[in-house]
Amino acid sequence: MGNFSGQCDQIFAVTLQESYALSIQVAAGIDDAEEGEDGSIQSVSSDLELVEDVAAGNQIVGLRFGGVLR
Asked: What is the reported pTM?
């Protein structure tokens, strides 16, 4: 709840034909989640630990960027 990211550096995406520079924020707390080694999902957290969480071990982090259009 209330997990909002601040402004970040640009993200660069390269395809076989084009390059893009994006600057996007995660808009809402429901737009990120962590999945622990045991399959448990944490969608309400005050922060994101990329890869290793002391309590959950290695984990996967998912982020959703809404409203991104080409």
From this structure: 0.55
